[in-house]
Amino acid sequence: MSDFRLWHYDGVTAVRRSVELRRTGEGFALEEPESGWTGTPVDWRDLTVVSMEGEHSAYGHRAIPGWRMGFSGQAPQDIAAHLPKAERYGRWIDRFGFWRAAGVFMLVAGLVVWGALEAPGVIAPLVPRGWENRMGDAMVGDFGGRFCHTPAGDAALRALAGQIDPRHEAREIALANIPMVNAVTLPGGRIILFDGLVQQAKSSDEVAGVLGHELGHVRHRDTMTGLIRQLGLSVVLGGAGGNAGGYLNGVLSLSYGRGAESAADGVAIDQMREAKISPAATAAFFERLGGKEEGAEARAMSWLSSHPLSAERRRRFAAAVTPGATYRPALDPAQWQALRTACATDPKVAKFWDNPF
Amino acid sequence: MDQERIGGDGFAFEGNWRAYAPIAFTNLLLTIVTLGIYRFWATTRTRRYLWANTRFIDDRLEWTGTGKELFLGFLMVVVLIGIPFLFLQFGAQALVLQGHAGLASILTLAAFVTIFYMVGLARFRALRYRLSRTWWHGIRGGSDDQGFGYGISYMWKSAVGSLALGLMIPWSMMSLWNERWNKMSFGPHSFEAAGDHGPVFKRFLLFYLLPFIIIALVGVAAVWGGSGLRGMGSGGPTTGMVLAFMLVPLLAYILFGIITLAFYAKFFREAVEGLSLTGLNFHFHARTKDWFLLFLGDIALVIATLGIGSIFLQYRHWKFFVIHMGVTGEIYTDELTQSRTKVSRHGEGLLDALDVGAF
User: Fold this and answer.
1) Which residue of chain A has the CA closest to B92?
2) Which one, of B170, B176, B180, lies nearest residue B200 by Cα?
3) Would you say B51 and B63 are in contact if contact means Cβ atoms under 8 Å apart?
């Protein structure tokens, strides 16, 4: 024990002292024999661990910042017994044991991830409709004056809505002057068909299919679920740091999820069967969108990117066609024409390219 | 007796990666199973190891920051910045949809300016936090400045720096470095930073040489591809030409990286050279080749270990920093008394959130 040498900083100046430890009642005092310097008495309980690196140990004082006492090697038994233990992984994990803590954390993490993915679907239906409506109105309003209105076009849209949505589950179905092959469901049960989709469609039956699909999102409140998921993920994944969380967040919030899309297709098929509209045109529409990605159909990509398209979805619509059933077109030729020309003939509608998004 | 004359390096690193490995691997495991929340405690464990194995003159450094501080700093950023920005993002989208694109762009611009300001503030506060948790001989560093003024400087100096084809960038970088360090102190003494941007400027001009090098490369590639055309007949030449023209962007990319390294190596040498603390003068010895080897090593390590090796990057960078640091002069330990600067309670949350480095 002869080579046990204590050094000390008092926290007031940077002078290094070679000290000896003299035991007093509940603690000790440090003394430097060379200069005759004596420190104030210290209670053993005031010691904290500053660092323990290999052979070097350093202790601090709970109440005096910068007060340090340290040594190399092993402390004599009578001193070592009083020294506090070092933290290794962190107080809780040390107390719990590394592997046990890791196991518990893993379990909790799994539950949190599962909850973050599942909870939005449970919470969304609990949000009062009034809140969702107001939120949607605040976010969207009149769409910047881009809704197309002509008397004949409005009548055609009403006729289409009346067949696909006879119970008025959607609060509003509108046509917007936006040249993208797309349709969106906004919070508050509002479906917006983009003019690009109407222009791209070969018949009113195709538009009916897309409308039925969006009605499915309204019925199952998928937009609200998506919003809550996005909010939740940004909080949960915020802890992960870096960009990985951001990317994952973006990818997950992009779509409603496979289950929601499939359920929305189911709603579309049901509504079309009720209205006696053939799902065959929608199947053909999917084939056109998915089949080739070049030429004029390339514009269809925006609908494709937000609604995962697969041969299976096309087959499902194709299989929904009842052989021998009598179908009628969703709109008569005059109505279909009125819908197709609504945006072009509405003199008051805001031009998409004048005020791009 | 209390005076220490310093020759040689002054700084030394006494750690080794085998001793650090258990820390790195357990940090990785705990960070994964806590969905990233442990990373604040992981950072603290790593720094405690790195600081404790860094010898400055006659004694080791101490890191006294805690994981809780870093975590609280992160939470503050989430509450004060993250949540408002989330609402702003939805709000701006809503405004655009309602046709108020002008208002939306003003809001977005305001958000951009705020973030820009925050980056400057974060750089300052991170340095202040790190100094206030770094102890040596029972004395710590710090700053009484809150950094709000530095945030403003950061904005206008960075903006001015990008004027005139970026010719003012060396000036703005050095000026900001000096401004930051001049507000820092250790014990009772203030750091003095008088880095000169003049010597750095010549290196910076290399960036303007790059376009000419690329044009020359394209020329060489064209000639090479052309000679292939004559030499190899009809089949080979296209491949040779395509290969040559694919190599040009790659080479340009690598060259840009090397010029950046060369510039930064010089910048960091000059910046540290201008830094002093009472009787101590700091030096940094790493040259472009050293930085180049560091990053080459980083890349090789990460690729060879399929990414897992990245847990050693912090260790490698700290070691590189310490072994190339030097200090000369005299220090009077009895005059080096305790710092009276305020200690902020929370860590570098802003820096963490905005992902910018302290040095």
Assistant:
1) A139
2) B170
3) yes
Q: What is the pLDDT of residue B250?
A: 84
> Rounded CA gap, A312 and B294, in Å?
52
DSSP state of A41: P
Arithmetic mean of pLDDT, A52-81:
88
pLDDT at B120: 92
Sorted by sequence, the CB contacts under 8 Å of residue B154 that are 6+ apart come out as: B116, B117, B119, B120, B121, B123, B124, B176
Bridge-partner residues for B83, per DSSP?
Answer: none
What is the per-residue burial (b if ≥16 Cβ within 10 Å, else e) of A294-328?
eeebebbeebbeebebeeebbebbbebbeeeeebe
Question: What is the bridge-based pairing of β-strands B3-6 and A190-194?
Answer: unpaired
Whether residues A51 and B33 touch (CB distance < 8 A) is answered with: no
CB A147 within 8 A of CB B102: no
Q: What is the pLDDT of residue B115?
A: 85
Q: Which two tokens stand for residue A160?
A: 């289409």
Rounded Cα distance between A48 and A85, Å, is 8
Residue partners of A186: CB distance under 8 A and separation at least 6: A136, A139, A140, A192, A223
Question: Of residues A309 and B310, which shows the higher confidence score?
Answer: B310
Strand segments, DSSP code E, in chain B are: 3-6, 11-13, 54-56, 59-60, 62-63, 134-136, 139-142, 185-186, 189-193, 275-277, 280-284, 325-332
- In this structure, of A143-152, A298-307, B195-204, B323-332, the range with the lowest mean pLDDT score is A298-307
Q: Do A140 and B97 touch (CB under 8 A)?
A: yes
pLDDT value of residue A248: 42
User: Is pLDDT above 80 for B145?
Assistant: yes
| Backbone φ and ψ of A178, nearest 5° | -130, 120
Residue A329, C-beta contacts closer than 8 angstroms, at least 6 positions apart: A203, A204, A205, A277, A336
pTM, entire model: 0.78
**What residues pair up with A42 in beta bridges, in sequence order?**
A28
d(CA A326, CA A303): 30
Tell me the shortest Cα–Cα distance from B228 to chain A, in angstroms.
Answer: 35
CA distance A187 to B62: 54
Name the DSSP class of A292.
-
Indicate yes or no: CB of B78 within 8 angstroms of CB of A231: no
Per-residue model confidence as pLDDT tens digits over B146-162 = 899 999 999 999 999 88
Is residue A157 over pLDDT 90?
yes
The label of the residue with tokens 């290094």 reads: A16
**Min Cα separation B219/chain A (Å):** 36
DSSP labels, B206-248: HHHHHHHHHHHHHHHHHHHHHHHHHHHTTTHHHHHHHHHHHHH
pLDDT, tens digit, 9 for 90 and up, residues B119-135: 899 899 999 999 999 99
Q: Which of A15, A50, A241 sits opposite B2 (nearest CB)?
A: A15
Q: Which residues pair with B59 in a beta bridge?
A: B56
Mutate to test the interface with B, among A53, A62, A147 (most CBs of B within 10 A): A53
